[in-house]
Amino acid sequence: MKRLYLIYGASALAATLIAAPLSVNAQENGNRDVSGGIVRGPYETNSIGDNWFVGIGGGINMLLNDGYDVKIGPSLDVNFGKWFTPSIGMRAGYQGLNFNSVKNGNTDKYGYMYIHGDFLWNISNALSGYKETRFWNFVPYLHAGFFRSFIGSGSDFADNEFAAGAGLLHNLRITDRLDAIIDMRATVVRGSVHGSSGPAVLPSVTAGVAYDLGWPNFVRTSTVLDAVETANAEKTAILEVAILALESANAALETENMNLKKKSNDLNKTVTILQKAEASYESDLIEMQPITVYFSIGQAVLGQLELEHLDFYARNIIEKVNSDPQVSIVVMGSADSNTGTARRNQYLSEERGKYIVNLLSDKYGIDADRVIVRSEVVKAKSNPDMERAVIISFN
After folding, report:
1. How many angstroms separate the Cα of 297 from the Cα of each of 36, 306, 349, 356?
2. Residue ranges of the chain that CATH labels 2.40.160.20
3. Long-range contacts from 243-248, C-beta under 8 angstroms, 24+ separation
4. Where along the chain do the CATH 3.30.1330.60 domains lie?
5. Burial class (CB in 10 A: 0-12, 13-18, 19+), 214
6. 88-103 and 329-336 as β-strands: parallel, antiparallel, unpaired?
7. CA geometry: angle at 40 spanning 36 and 46, to 5°?
8. % of the chain at pLDDT higher than 70
9. DSSP string spanning 317-368?
10. Which CATH architecture has domain 288-394?
């Protein structure tokens, strides 16, 4: 019978605590619009350091299990959590001290520790809209965690179990940061935590305070948007004048753009003419082959004048031909037979050709693999100076 009275009393207390915040919320209208409708979110995302809270409270608990009488024990609550939105939050907490069980006139006292995580739902903010000055917020929650019972006086029993349950948290606003809290929790755990079979229920009621850390409130996005719209309305006239000025400037830019397009077309025509002229010039240069440079009698290197001639040819003709992989460069070294021995003349013709190939490769970067080297000794003629030469042609 005593157990039944306790259950009735706890039920009556729960009904009173549930009814109170609903009646308080119904009387508040500070978060209503001009037509009386509830003003809701969305809300700006809070920073990582905002909307945290710590809470501590003390109260009573009791253990309900088949075959055991009920006896009240003390309970301590410590919690740390964060509100992510005005309606949704989470917290981690410790509940503990001891619980008592009575069977056959024998009392067993157990120390216990319950480490839990809670999912919080502020139903006052969810149903009635967020209001930072609301006196009473009603927060149901679900919890789960690790439950450990310790060896108590007159008992040698201890056990670790998983536990879960539900609760009702009541936040009563005292100041901007300080709330009074009433926490009603029911925890379901295996009866093995005190040596019995079947499930056990550990209801508890604690009261204490919670303190808000960081910035404790939320900003409704619509409020921010309203402020922006108001600021924009004040700037509308200035923006309209700026638009007219931009339209005028745009018309001037379009006129200038048309003039630039005409100049661009004229420049393109000029470039086309120059390109055709350059192509014709290159064709004329290639048609100027063969190229001949002359050596002094008995010499296999060029004098300064002929070096200048070769430089012109190499930069204007040979390099262009070298860029075409289909064309080979033929270098023919020659010597006259009017002077010197046949062996000496053959040597000069070969060395003159090699000398030119080395110049083209080392000085002008022409690929030596593209060059075909030949040599000859020209039979005696009336003008042997013309035969002391290297002739460059293209295949």
Report:
1. 117, 14, 11, 17
2. 2-219
3. none
4. 288-394
5. middle
6. unpaired
7. 150
8. 81
9. IIHHHHT-TT--EEEEEEEESSSS-HHHHHHHHHHHHHHHHHHHHHTT---G
10. 2-Layer Sandwich (3.30)
- Segments in the chain forming alpha helices (H): 2-27, 123-128, 221-286, 304-313, 319-322, 342-362
Which class in CATH covers the domain with range 2-219? mainly beta
d(CA 360, CA 376): 20
Tell me what pLDDT residue 55 has. 96
Cβ proximity of 181 and 171 under 8 Å = yes
| Closest alpha carbon to 75 in 110, 102, 117, 107 | 110
Count of other CB atoms within 10 angstroms of residue 360: 24
Give 31's contacts (C-beta < 8 A, 6+ positions apart).
38, 39, 128, 129, 130, 131
CA 51 to chain centre: 26
pLDDT single digits (tens) 351-369 = 999 999 999 888 888 888 8
Side-chain half-sphere of 101: how many Cα atoms within 13 Å? 25
User: Could you give phi then psi for residue 388, rounded to 5 degrees?
Assistant: -85, 75
